[in-house]
Amino acid sequence: MLLKDRVAIVTGGAGINGLGFATARMLAAHGAQVVILDLAAANPAAAAAELGPQHLGVVADVTRRDECESAAEAALARYGRIDILFNNAGITQAKKTLDITDADYDAVLDVSLRGTLLMSQAVLPAMQRQGGGSIVNTSSVSAQRGGGILGGPHYSAAKAGVLGLTKAMAREFGPDGIRVNAITPGLIATDIIKGKLTEERKVEIAREIPLARLGRAADIGGAVVFLASELSAYCTGITLDVNGGMLI
Ligand code: NAD
What class of enzyme is it (predicted)? Predict the structure, then answer.
């Protein structure tokens, strides 16, 4: 078992069709105890129960420092350690530059960028005490292409910010044995794109992708298991593209 006795927190992990839950399921299948963190409305306790009684659901908003700290404390109270943090929570808005309001900017950057920083701050002291850990941050192909199919410029900026944060934290915490890496998903069929693309548009997009299909949630899970485990022991500060070859 790759992740036996490892404890993993997955933010935004309660959506049954989302990348977080699919990844939580794969982390659990590889032996990890998983803490599913999400907003109350997403019902993280039910999602954790779906994985089994040894897993934990925690309600927290990643944009709130106190709630991130309480979530980390709940994980430590239950399992005594935190080995893996998958910063997955994120929201998108398909807006053009001139339409982005202050509230739009705050909402999108707060969840992806502030949330990634706050949750990392909440778990890093425990990882330092343990002498190691792995943080996997979620960026997006939108950061690399300068605009996405579904994300506006503020989304691209938030996800590009995640790459900078990843590299800076990787440099800072490498000496503590803590690795920090990022994934850049391409277009993955989850609730985030539900109702936003017609079937024809999906076929059109798939035609442009060398692997000739949209991504599946499990494609992300595999990449996160790799970065979370010792298989990637000498990788830190990297950006792992999971996009079917979209950028070739
Ligand atoms: P999703 O909408 O299905 O899931 C997002 C989850 O985050 C939900 O469970 C939601 O409740 C949770 N969440 C939102 N705000 C939160 C907050 N403040 N605190 C805690 N949880 C919060 O989306 P998804 O497609 O599974 O995307 C997951 C991540 O992957 C996001 O960061 C997204 O930007 C990124 N991503 C997705 C794609 C894609 O094509 N699906 C592509 C690139 C990047």
Answer: oxidoreductase
| Options 79, 105, 155, 234, the catalytic residue | 155
Q: Is the CB of 90 under 6 A from ligand 1?
A: yes
Q: Looking only at Cα atoms, what is the longest distance across the chain? A: 52
**155 catalytic, yes or no?**
yes
Query: What token pair was written down for 69?
Result: 């700290």
> Does 109 sit in the ligand 1 pocket, CB within 6 Å?
no
CATH code where residue 189 lies: 3.40.50.720
What residue's CA is closest to ligand 1, atom 27? 19
Residue 2 lies in a domain: no
CA distance 59 to 74: 10
C-beta 14 within 6 A of ligand 1: yes
In-domain check, residue 128: yes
In the predicted structure, residue 148 carries a pLDDT above the cut 80? no
168 contacts: CB under 8 Å, gap ≥ 6 = none
Distance 246 CA to ligand 1 centre (A): 20
The residue among 216, 195, 213 whose CA lies nearest residue 204 is: 213
Quick one: pLDDT band at residue 196, thresholds 50, 70, 90? confident
Q: Is residue 53 part of a domain?
A: yes
Instruction: Report which DSSP code applies to 88.
Output: -
Task: State in Å: Cα 195 to ligand 1 middle.
Answer: 16
pTM across the whole model: 0.98
Report the number of distinct structural domains present in the chain. Answer: 1
Is residue 19 situated within a structural domain?
yes
CA of 113 to the centre of ligand 1 (A): 12
